[in-house]
Amino acid sequence: MSALGMAVVGCGYWGPNLVRNIVACPQTRLVRACDVDAARLAEVLAPYPGVQACTELAEVLADEQVTAVAIATPVATHHALARECLLAGRHVLVEKPMAATVAQAEDLVALARERSLRLMCDHVFCYAPVVRVMKDIIDAGSLGDVLYFDSVRINLGLFQRDVNVIWDLAPHDLSILEYLTGRQPVAVSVQAARHAGWEQENMAYVALDFDNGFLAHLHLNWLSPVKIRKTIIGGSERMLVWNDLDPAERLKVYDKGVTIQPRPDRAARDTALVSYRTGGVTSPHVPHGEALAGVVAEFAAAVAEKRAPLTDGASGARMLRILEAAQQSVARGGARVPVAGEGA
Amino acid sequence: MSALGMAVVGCGYWGPNLVRNIVACPQTRLVRACDVDAARLAEVLAPYPGVQACTELAEVLADEQVTAVAIATPVATHHALARECLLAGRHVLVEKPMAATVAQAEDLVALARERSLRLMCDHVFCYAPVVRVMKDIIDAGSLGDVLYFDSVRINLGLFQRDVNVIWDLAPHDLSILEYLTGRQPVAVSVQAARHAGWEQENMAYVALDFDNGFLAHLHLNWLSPVKIRKTIIGGSERMLVWNDLDPAERLKVYDKGVTIQPRPDRAARDTALVSYRTGGVTSPHVPHGEALAGVVAEFAAAVAEKRAPLTDGASGARMLRILEAAQQSVARGGARVPVAGEGA
Amino acid sequence: MSALGMAVVGCGYWGPNLVRNIVACPQTRLVRACDVDAARLAEVLAPYPGVQACTELAEVLADEQVTAVAIATPVATHHALARECLLAGRHVLVEKPMAATVAQAEDLVALARERSLRLMCDHVFCYAPVVRVMKDIIDAGSLGDVLYFDSVRINLGLFQRDVNVIWDLAPHDLSILEYLTGRQPVAVSVQAARHAGWEQENMAYVALDFDNGFLAHLHLNWLSPVKIRKTIIGGSERMLVWNDLDPAERLKVYDKGVTIQPRPDRAARDTALVSYRTGGVTSPHVPHGEALAGVVAEFAAAVAEKRAPLTDGASGARMLRILEAAQQSVARGGARVPVAGEGA
Amino acid sequence: MSALGMAVVGCGYWGPNLVRNIVACPQTRLVRACDVDAARLAEVLAPYPGVQACTELAEVLADEQVTAVAIATPVATHHALARECLLAGRHVLVEKPMAATVAQAEDLVALARERSLRLMCDHVFCYAPVVRVMKDIIDAGSLGDVLYFDSVRINLGLFQRDVNVIWDLAPHDLSILEYLTGRQPVAVSVQAARHAGWEQENMAYVALDFDNGFLAHLHLNWLSPVKIRKTIIGGSERMLVWNDLDPAERLKVYDKGVTIQPRPDRAARDTALVSYRTGGVTSPHVPHGEALAGVVAEFAAAVAEKRAPLTDGASGARMLRILEAAQQSVARGGARVPVAGEGA
User: Fold this and answer.
1) Which residue among B46, B226, B227 sits closest to C47, beta carbon to beta carbon?
2) Do C118 and C182 reside in the same domain of the chain?
3) Is B344 part of a structural domain of the chain?
4) What percent of chain B has pLDDT over 90?
5) Within a domain: B137
6) Which pLDDT tens digit goes with each residue over C238-252?
7) Domain CATH for A207
8) pLDDT classification of B244: cutoffs 50, 70, 90
9) Is B156 within 8 Å of chain A by CB?
10) Among A278, B307, D174, D277, which residue's beta carbon has the most beta carbons within 10 A?
């Protein structure tokens, strides 16, 4: 079978990574790259003389060799560009977040279904080796019941003009959360602030409620003096800490837990019914590997096998339901806002 | 002037620390210690043969040499014991939180005022050398405008029978926050969970709103596999990180910041108006010293000078207003609950 | 069987720890404590009204209830005091290093043997829970062949008047090394320096040769701006790192190694014959517990069972042979100096 | 003035970095690149279609546009290749170590002097921003008298076929040491080991003596389970720690020291004459920047200005005198070996 002919649309910050990985992947072939900035494009394509450059999407879609398009433009343009590609019969891989609104995302999902085309969202962390190892640990039941997910993703970060800190950083955690636990939040409450006269929120605390007592919380901050990327997943049997800034021991599994016996008699407040367990710590080996290579391989496989990719359009739409609810919570001063259900 | 004659009531977990510090302080003299468990008391007092042991508060109050009483019993008993001491004309130092309800706290404050007695709450961190250094840095204006306060206080902690994680841990952060910034929150929203079949919340995210855009957030958790005690205070000029578990560099001041010029023209979204500054890091020397020694010295000084102590009854009452609002937020599923004003 | 009646001689820096542990140990009973400074002694004994204080060794030895003596005086006095105790028929526990010279140590060993008395050296780290866990790991063969031992023990330390940094710090590492590996070095080379006009060496690099290619190295330093207490033990199968300043993960076992196949043909420099293995990291649980409690318990057991204690006089003498060779190496500008064999 | 026309000879591990930096430097122009492996070369040059590829040095030297040659081949070939280039009238930049023997290095130095050509050794760390900041701190006298230099450079590293761990890693530290302190060691003692059946030493402790009590020590290890790259420079006033693996605080200056007053009377062993000072810690900002860019810029400037570069051939020869002495020390079982003086 021949490699999937692809084009990359948008070669600003993230596009060059797509270019590099599509070139490197044996199942894909980069045919074209497109950007409104021809000079930037020439620079990005310098090492790849076989790839055609163009500045208009129409040129991309006119090329019969292009079977699929990867879109890495600003969020506001995702819907229009992806729509055009789908209408032109191309499979589409879109940067996160998939669109600017739930309605746009649902429109793309419906269109792709109608045309029997693949629509995939680049939730890149779901393909990171470290997250794969975490998934294996959780699926094997090592943590017992998963009780909570706590993520801190803070830095002195670049303020974005077109999105706030939630739209910029939360997609990473939300996609990881869905991938690892398979759970959807029912409501979200956000405490956010806009500092230093900026128009967009630059720090936010996002609390996510779930049906069954499970709790998730994200601390997102562009105004932190220190860079922290740490996720704690608490389980009834073991707990897991992912420190993405510690390359030597990125993942640690703590053999720690609390066991509380059901108390038949409410009056008997005997502390002996609570027992703590403090065992050792294990840091499993995490293979090297670029997450984006996994994204490209999965996309090519989904097209070849005519199946939904792991992070399909529907998962992109689910994420947008959470982001919209979070945005409403900000607008309503931190109120708890329900997350719309699928098809709602 | 002779040393202040004191008694300690309650010699369980914290009481022995009070005993030791009151003995060591040149301005105080420990006359008596009282606990319902005579054996425990004997053990605690073994090194101090000159201190009288007793099991009834009445014995304490009958002793003319006792001018002031330090109370370190369970929270539920604070009000009744402190009230009795004040009625008997004794100055009172109470463990945090000062009482179980705002009403109780206000009653004690009123009573002490009426009788011209000192009422102090043992907000011990306000006397820790590291917090003193932080206070000096903030008061000197080094941070510029203080933008946010973020505290993480998590551990695999002992579940308490009589209080939840908020009542156990938040008082530390709330007292530090008031001491450092002089600000009172106007509302509080809490996302909390009770895991492992326990009756009390064992993890909580407490978000505190202030009038002027300032934001504070506490992550409190008895179910964390790792112990973290880290506070970040973001300022417009510099930022500060207090890592209480790094004895060699407990405090770091980051010469980092973001400057955003006011934009006369909303349409002109020029990123050049945002500038980042990344300078060095300074870790000021933090003197050694036990915080509780400072508490005892301040209490003795306040009594001697007939003035309010730094962490007086009113500050204890203010903290209870926040704790009560937090508890209501938990009860109302994370709703934003206003914090009652003083005298409200 | 009744508890072993003991006395502590020397209540300066370390003696109070002996006092506390001998009081606490069920197999021992502290009868007397002795120090030339009566005021210091009174302070140390305040919590223990049942213990007799005295300022002369003669008083200790006149007390029939004293069956064994623990000596924690300056090194220069160890030999004379221990000798007197042995001559008076008492078992002896001596602080490290056991004596000031090999000759003194051998004299004590011979005397104790002659009188059938227990002579033990307080090599306290051999009783630390973390070292016990390391011993179990090594004895179980987890590390494969043990290849090297590298220890860094540095700090801005108190300069000692009577000993240099080698005599102060090396005993810890030398006793751990002997305990863990059972090996004796054949030669020692020391690079040392005396800085800041001081008479004693305040930093030293101590390299220890062994017969079989095994190498040990100690970096000892009183002049370091940072405190490091880290030991690496390299094995052919796994490697171990002990970081004594990381209470949460004091010990880590790295499933890492290098495998090199014997090369039949010298000319064939095929790198494929070398293979690296990088697996996970495990941090075994280290139980809490004070090492000195283990010292006291072992001493009492050795007396009761009429057997040599784990760290007996002979091990104290072996350590002195290394220390003397190290001192000669310093005197000879870093020359490699053989370590005298037992009975040499 | 036109840019310096350059060729890179050797495009294995390090050569591609030279290629990239010579292309990027405004003062240099990459004309040719040469490697015996044409396929590897094609891959390296793919992004740079304007650069000529060739497999023979003769082709390089036949090209009139090539004014200077950068050599990044195995050490054993440095001398022959550099000699040929110098004889052909080309300036030469050589990878570290500059040659395989002192004699070879001195031959190159003499030849370059004779022909008035620039000969530079790529001691790349001397151009690293962090080392530049350290140099400024030391030159400003902030550390007071510099007392010692302690470097740990360990990892589970790739075993090299043609050099041992000393020749591989020590050049980094030796060049930094010379650059920062301007001092030359008078003798070297090395404790080394060959583990796992390997022919080359894979771990070594290198102690360097200096005339005036200054001491330097390097721990070099390819067999460590953990990666450490940490240098401590102790001074009489302040001390400095460079942790190259901590990107956020790569450099720390500790305001710590020991002051010892000269003691007129040897008998008066008064500890009060020693005083410790423990102040804060400062982590100066280290600008971003690739060290190799500085190497290339310095080489171009030295050619243009007809002056010796900072790390000239003579410094390369001085390093080889130390490496040869170290090798002899290994061969003589760790003996202290004098380092030959310049022109010796």
Assistant:
1) B46
2) no
3) no
4) 79
5) yes
6) 999 999 999 889 999
7) 3.30.360.10
8) very high
9) yes
10) D174
pLDDT at B216 over 50: yes
Same domain, B278 and B207: yes
Task: Please indicate, yes or no, whether residues D137 and D274 belong to a single structural domain of this protein.
Answer: yes
Among C155, C330, C305, C136, residue whose Cα is nearest residue C228: C155
Q: Å from C197 to nearest chain D CA? A: 7
- Residue D328 has which token pair? 């002899």
* Per-residue confidence band for C268, with pLDDT thresholds at 50, 70 and 90: very low
Same domain, C86 and C160: no
What residue of A is the nearest CA neighbor of D249? A226
Q: CA nearest A158 in B: which residue?
A: B276
Task: Looking at the structure, tell me whether residues A130 and A256 fall in a common domain.
Answer: yes
Q: Does A46 touch chain D (CB under 8 A)?
A: yes
Task: List the single residue in B147, B161, B224 with the smallest CB-CB distance to A232.
Answer: B224
Task: Give the separation between CA C216 and CA C209, rounded to whole angstroms.
Answer: 7
Asked if C234 and D259 come within 8 Å (Cβ–Cβ), the reply is no
Helix (H), strand (E) at residue A167: helix A165-181
Residue B101: CB atoms within 10 A of its CB come to 13
Cis geometry, peptide bond prior to residue B97 (ω within 30 degrees of 0): yes
By CA distance, what is B283's nearest residue in D?
A: D281
Residues C117 and C170 in one domain: no
Residue range of the domain that includes D72: 4-123+291-323
Question: What is the tens place of the pLDDT at every residue in D45-57?
Answer: 988 888 999 999 9
Is residue A222's pLDDT more than 70?
Answer: yes
Distance, in angstroms, between D89 CA and closest chain A CA? 34
* C126, C131, C136, C139: CA torsion to nearest 10: -70
In a domain, A116, yes or no: yes
* One domain, residues C78 and C186: no
Q: Write out pLDDT tens, residues C94-151.
A: 999 999 999 999 999 999 999 999 999 999 999 999 999 999 999 999 999 999 999 9
| Residue B50 near chain C (CB below 8 Å) | no
Helix/strand/coil percent split, chain B, to 5: 35, 30, 35
Chain B contact for A239, CB < 8 A? yes
| CATH code of the domain covering residue B305 | 3.40.50.720
Together in a domain, B195 and B65: no
The count of structural domains within chain A is 2
For residue C223, is it within any domain? yes
Could you tell me where the beta strands, DSSP code E, fall in chain D? 4-9, 28-34, 52-54, 68-71, 91-95, 119-122, 146-156, 187-193, 203-209, 215-221, 223-235, 239-243, 251-260, 274-283, 337-338
Q: Which range is least confidently modeled, B3-12, B275-284, D204-213? A: B275-284
Q: Hey, is the C-beta of D156 within 8 angstroms of any chain A C-beta?
A: no
